[in-house]
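go over this:
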Amino acid sequence: MTKLGSVVQYRPRMALRFPHRRVGRFLFTVATVVLALTFVGACAGAQHASDAVSRLFLRPSRSLVTLRAPPATTLVPIQFAADDDTVLRGTLYDRADSDRVVLVIGGISGNHTWYGPYADAIVAAGFDALLFDTRGFGASDGAADATTLVADVGAAYRYLIEARSYARADTAVFGISLGSVLALAVARAEQPGAVVVEDLFLPHEMFDRLKKRLEGNVLGRLTSSWVESTMLPVVDPITNARAFDGPMLFVAGSIDPISKPAATIRVANARERPSRVWIAPHAGHAPEVLLGYDLEYAAHLATFLRAALLREKSPHVATTLLRAEGRLARLRVDCTAAVIAQIVVTDGAKFFFAIRELPAGATELALDVDFEPRHTFATVMHHATRGADGTLAATASPFARSMADYAAFASRFDAELKRLGKKLAAPIAAKRLCSAIEGAIPDPRSIHASVRPRFARRLAPLATVLLDASAPHAHEFGLRVGSFLPEHPDAWTGYGDAGFEGGFRDAVCADLCERLVPILTAAGHLDAASDCARRALAMKP
């Protein structure tokens, strides 16, 4: 494969001209409007209406997070033309020792730089990774448009094949949330070497719930008919997954409220060839699985990609539901080697998880669950910890432990505030609250970098009240709170209270940093004062 440097302008020979429909967090009604106005635009030339709805429905961000290159990797800014000459941009993580690549396709919000943690995991597994923006997102030209998403993803894939000279068998597409549907649509057309999907959903089931709202008039019936005959077949995950001939890895969180794991189960079971399925216990929507199970996530991704693209052999486990006797699930588990495995039994909504040490060959198990079992999956566990009682559990990641620490701290904070019964803005209440919770504030070095800003957001208002009141030790407390802020707010990515965040922006935290600048300057800490001023500027919304 030819490795190219610097910025490359590329125009594809052909493009997928698929109309596409999208989904997002809470959005059944909005999705209906998107579909209806897209149809009206196609029939009546009202493209501006579709554009307006896309602007409302999609949530692109032009705020780019600073990506940092992993070891032995070069970040190459790239650009290429979509089928209508719109310039799309992104970043190629280029390993000097790799000639295989993974195309990462994100969701409805943010931009490609927010997905740096996924690229880091891919590169650590030994592969190149391409993050890119569809039109209207991040650095790409144009306005965000729901009807061109599949075409833009297809253009990105062909850029890798035609301009970067990767062989199809050496490529994988990796779709997250909305990107999972796009990845399968492109996989059906392009047949890459492998596919990974996380937080999959079923567009046709959503539309079935909505179409009765459209069929009250002639236009609505025409729209419904057009969507069912023209649009949904292109993005139907079951049809596309069946038409893809290569290996697939499905990832889902068991309590994802947005893309419920039942869709993942339906699609995985519909494929004729076996697929790997990992249901992460008690995890929600992306990036919760990545952050909550970072060690296990990286291992699953690495072993799957290396088996699919490098033909490496690794231990594998499969399970079959032999029969259900009431709520007793009788299973057969087949292992290619002695392993520790996570076994999942589900009825599509409820889940039972068990971790077992299993020998090579076939083993029969009986698991008592509190529902009627219908499906079962098994995956090799790469990081398991044995408790004092002898039972095995998934090793908690630093993120998961930090989230538990934050939950305990927030509970203590809220209980003390409620006990005081006064507003935080009152200096006396602020002083008492500070004294009550000071011992519960952890050392920031013990907290995962993605979680530290949660502590800062909780404590910054208290610190500013104490500084305003010139309370004793207010300066020291303010500096302590400041130690929870990201060193590089523009490069920070994490899971905040509102979901996946790229770049740390908070007006109160920025104000706190500005207040700390003269304090540090007066103490003679000029470098620290300059750094604080820099972070204050970067954190302003």
